[in-house]
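2 proteins. here.
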Amino acid sequence: MALAAVLIWGMTFVSSKVLVGLLDPYWYIVLRFLLAWGCLFLLSPRPMALLPKKQEWDMVLCGLAGVTFYYLFQNVALIHSTASNTGVITASSPLFTALILWFFGRRVKLSPLFFLGFALCIGGVAAISFSGGGGELHLLGDSFALAAALAWGAYCVLITRTQDSGLTDLQVTRKVFFWGMLLTIPPALVMGEPVPLTVFTGGGLSFWGNLLFVSLFSSALCYLLWGMATARIGSVAASVYLYLIPVVSVIGSALILDEPVSWVTFAAIAAILVGLVLSQKGNRPV
């Protein structure tokens, strides 16, 4: 389930790069998760009451970290950087998952090997940011991609706290989407720009194909799969599969978007992947 999710997510950066060029990035998130929430509602149409206060707050925090913050940061990154850079950098989120668990003293012990891996990853991120396609710097966009990785790391930790809610995986995902979509509306109203109707009527197959892909597959299906995977193997073990995202996103962006891929990009990907593997070996449950 985790493998299927990350293979789809790797291609999502390509679709999102197309869509943020057509839609306001704030309203894009609202529209994407409105469609995804509607799909899940049709699969489980039973109305859900509010959970006890602590459990409902966990759902709110999951929506805030895994939908609102993650996609706001990711979309800004895609505007100011390339899809391949964004995919590579956000793949560092397993580091933040382990760091958050370690910081709060939750079942993870970090060794010097972890911090060596962390240094390799940050070095790879810096190399990608300062190389840029065609000599162009993407420091602003890549910084937002790193912030998105932190937000996703927090989501991977928070989603494990919803497992005792008494809801099914599908219902948990539906609640998370609802809160994430709701919390994205205020910044969209303040900072977003109205979406012209011509986008929907004249966007054609490219627009609707990409929108349905990110809404139904990379959102509704993949979040459901990810929640089920973390419930079965844990957030740190599931995060191992995120290592494949940069490979998929770089290949997809090069083939579909014709984005330049230099030897520095490949070297940085190698450094990040080695760093992620070392960091995984350098953390263990306690």
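next one coming up
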Amino acid sequence: MKNYFSKSEIILWCSSVILIIFSFAIFDKENYFTVVASLIGVTSLIFNAKGNPFGQLLMIIFSLLYGIISYMFDYYGEMITYLGMTMPMAIFALISWLKNPYKGNKSEVKVNNISKKETLIMWLITVLVTIIFYFILKSFNTTNVILSTVSVTTSFLAVYLTFRRSPYFALAYAANDIILIMLWILASITRIQYISVVVCFVAFLINDIYGYISWNRMKIRQSENK
């Protein structure tokens, strides 16, 4: 693993960890469950940025923990999304990434391009999923149902694109991060300790943006080395 991560990646990960721990120490100090989930999540992102399947394994664990955290605040949309969609799809993504290594290198997945036809089908399914989940979340009296529904939309796009090994998965996750930042800001109005969750997703947003940049570099490099 020596020299596996670049200096900028190490700095990014360390800065994210410090930011998460610092915010926990200021605003929370009690829910260690939340900070552990956040640290696992941000670590998964740095591995995902490298196209390493280990990142998907960590995402499975994070999805389970985040689903529990969401349940505690009655964010049933987030709970259902992560336990019923993100976690199962992360399992499928892990299998997909393991089955498609780049030139036999198990620590780097082969970047994939999806066709225009598949992109159209993906958007049609996304619209259908969004409509179905809106009524499901509304029946559960979900807190901030509109934002929660949009979170389902961005989450579905993210997990689908991750499974299909498209660089755009990172942008979809970045969009989801923005929605989650808004959701947890609203939650922090009631309970200030949730500001630490807001900071967590700010760190996730920065990492996902880097993940998109990293995957585009991988795509170019892999194309040149064909």
